[in-house]
Automatic annotation (TrEMBL), chain B:
Similarity annotation: Belongs to the binding-protein-dependent transport system permease family.
The protein, known as: ABC transporter permease
Residue spans crossing the bilayer: 12-36, 70-91, 103-123, 151-175, 196-218, 259-281
CDD domains per record: TM_PBP2 (cd06261)
GO cellular component: plasma membrane
Species assigned in the record: Thalassospira tepidiphila MCCC 1A03514
Alphabetic keyword roster: Membrane, Transmembrane, Transmembrane helix, Transport
A Gene Ontology biological process term: transmembrane transport
Pfam families the record matches: BPD_transp_1 (PF00528)
Membrane topology: Multi-pass membrane protein
């Protein structure tokens, strides 16, 4: 187990990078605390796997350093770093039995057979592989093969960190849930440092204590699932986390309030003070959960906005209403028993959950 | 459900039946015909039973040829298979080197057997051949036309030169099909270079190697042209392998009965070895799956 520091780390696949676009990973400072369970969340192509391969040593970064417990390991090969990694698609040694597959990482390091046996049986027990230990790995299904891959990642108890690169992609939904629980259990029991790459927010939010959101080769936010939900530091986080994502609208500030498409949205003093120093492109964001929609001849009042309701989707436990005013389309999350009457209504913003962004970064 | 029986469908099988009959069954039956009769002309023939078979199986010259053949084929396999794997492992995986090495490797495969024989016949001559001349310069008395060992080695080297590329290409294709993740996982697991070969590369090459071994076995077991062009099976009988022996018997001495009997034995040996090899390898792969 170790604390992992990334110091002014950047990586480009080009030999001579010039613009920011040439970098797969933009310059970053980042710390993975010892014993943390992290999810690395982001869309495809945002640099998650690159970052993971740099930590494991499969890739040497073009700039900066990787430190394990303060020791520089940037130029060390994966086998010298003492790290475990599980890949997206199952990697198994076909000709070996399940037992030998699990024992392989230990035997390669010259650990004595007694200890190997104990570890293999313990991990096999955790992953429900005990009954299959004597089978050849080649005849197993994709689920079981990937479970073996997971087992090989977990079998060493002295690793600095265990890295998972979208490990549950090929697993069927039910087993996915079971394995995620197992990983979480193993983490609670042994407290290894775990980094879990995924593009699935549900997976990230259920697995991790801390979620790192990446976008365009940068870490845009590190926080607990709650922080990401309540306080997205970047419009991308707002949009990517949550279902549906945050409503983001272009806005201007005038007369002590925000104006979106000619409609006034009141702001708190906190917002106004913070935004007065900003010059970039302003956007206003609010999560669908924090909007209220009243229908059936509701009173507009001082802070309501008249909207057209274009669509209502009933998703079982809640409803999503799509509303429109001017050019803005806004989604509102409604309780299952809230009724929507007619084609129009009054939309109200909760000022404490209304966020302002300048050039996509959170202002207040 | 009522099945509709339509025997007209059998007519659809007829073309295949004719092709197989003409290409395989009729020629084979002709050979069988010759192997159990003594035929002088179309009107004069005697049924001789297993006499020809007894005669060829008891022929000591044939025993010698068979031993030479087995020893030769094993040598070919033991050299070409490991060498082919080794070369495949060292080939570049990307860049211009890939196409360059593919072209170089494919060249020997494109040359007809008798041309290969001629090339080496000239190449190995001590007076005008570069190879033979250089070897003699080094103080080694090399002369394939007189020294049986030299002739035997020349035929072996010729085959290795001609056919190792086939094994290389097959193995290379097998190696290319291994995803990068396997190598990455092996690094993470701390596998040695040997373990990567033993547990990742070799299993992935297994199926192509089976085909490679079978092809090289059959081909080298039937070798005819190269020794024929080089020394005509000599000096003495040093490079008289089974095909050579058979041809001499059938065409040279016109002993069609014994030649036919021997052809059948020859055919059965190849069939049997291939079947045993294939079955053993395939069963080894399946072991423990259930």
């Amino acid at each position: 187990m170790a604390r992992i520091d990334l110091k002014s780390l950047a990586h480009s696949y080009f030999p001579d990078p010039k613009t920011d676009e040439d970098y797969a990973l933009r310059r970053m400072e980042h710390v993975w605390e010892d014993g943390g369970a992290y999810a690395l969340l982001g869309p495809s192509g945002c640099g998650k796997t690159t970052l993971l391969n740099i930590i494991s040593g499969l890739l040497t970064p073009s700039h900066g350093q990787v430190l394990f417990d303060g020791k520089d390991v940037t130029s060390l090969a994966p086998e010298e770093r003492n790290i475990a990694q599980v890949f997206q698609f199952p990697v198994i040694y076909d000709t070996m039995t399940v037992y030998d597959n699990l024992a392989f990482p230990l035997r390669n390091r010259g650990i004595d057979e007694k200890r190997v046996d104990a570890r293999v049986r313990e991990i096999a027990g955790m992953l429900d592989l005990t009954g299959k230990l004597k089978q050849k790995a080649r005849g197993l299904g994709a689920d079981e093969k990937q479970t073996i891959s997971l087992g090989r990642g977990l079998v060493r108890d002295d690793v600095s960190a265990i890295l998972f690169d979208e490990p549950l992609t090929v697993i069927d939904p039910h087993l996915k849930w079971v394995l995620r629980r197992k990983l979480k259990e193993i983490h609670n029991k042994l407290r290894p440092t775990m980094v879990y790459v995924t593009h699935d927010q549900v997976e990230a939010l259920t697995f991790a204590d801390k979620v790192v959101v990446m976008y365009g080769g940068k870490v845009v936010q590190l926080g607990t699932p709650q922080e990401l939900f309540e306080n997205p530091a970047h419009t991308f986080v707002g949009y990517f986390i949550g279902s549906p994502g945050m409503n983001i609208m272009d806005c201007k500030i005038d007369d002590g309030a925000a104006w979106v498409d000619g409609q006034r949205i009141s702001l708190s003093d906190r917002h106004l003070e913070a935004v007065s120093k900003q010059t970039g492109k302003l956007e206003l964001g609010i999560r669908p959960e924090f909007l209220t929609l009243e229908t059936g001849n509701a009173d507009k009042g001082s802070d309501g906005i008249e909207v057209n309701i274009t669509k209502v989707e009933d998703l079982g436990q809640f409803k999503i209403a799509t509303t429109r005013f001017g050019a803005s389309e806004i989604k509102v999350k409604l309780g299952e028993d809230e009724q929507v009457v007619g084609q129009s209504g009054i939309l109200r913003f909760a000022p404490e959950w209304t966020k302002l962004y300048a050039d996509s970064q959170l202002v207040a | 459900m009522n099945k509709i029986t339509n025997n007209k469908a059998w007519f659809l099988v007829l073309p295949v039946f004719f092709i197989v009959a003409i290409s395989a069954i009729i020629p084979l039956m002709t050979v069988v015909n010759y192997s159990v009769q003594d035929i002088f002309d179309p009107q004069t023939r005697f049924f001789v039973g297993t006499e020809w078979f007894e005669q060829v199986l008891g022929d000591s010259r044939l025993h010698d040829a068979l031993l030479r053949q087995i020893f030769y084929t094993l040598s070919v396999l033991f050299i070409e298979i490991p060498l082919g794997i080794a070369v495949a492992l060292t080939l570049p995986r990307k860049g211009w080197g890939v196409s360059a090495s593919m072209v170089l490797l494919a060249l020997p495969l494109l040359i007809p057997w008798n041309v290969v024989g001629t090339i080496w016949q000239i190449f190995g001559r001590a007076d005008i051949g570069l190879g033979g001349y250089v070897i003699n310069l080094m103080g080694i008395d090399y002369n394939y036309a007189q020294n049986p060992m030299d002739a035997w080695l020349t035929v072996l080297v010729m085959d290795v030169w001609h056919w190792t590329s086939l094994i290389v290409l097959l193995c290379y294709a097998g190696l290319r099909s291994i995803p990068d993740a396997y190598y990455q996982a092996a690094k993470i697991d701390g596998a040695s270079r040997w373990a990567v070969f033993r547990f990742i590369q070799l299993p992935k090459m297994q199926s192509v190697l089976v085909i490679g071994v079978l092809l090289r076995f059959m081909d080298s077991f039937m070798i005819y042209t190269e020794p024929f062009v080089l020394t005509g099976g000599g000096p003495g009988n040093a490079t008289t392998f089974l095909s050579q022996f058979l041809t001499r018997m059938a065409v040279g001495q016109f002993d069609l009965g014994p030649a036919a009997a021997f052809s059948l034995v020859y055919f059965l040996i190849i069939l049997l070895v291939c079947w045993v090899f294939y079955t053993v390898v395939m069963n080894a792969g399946k072991q423990g799956e259930q």
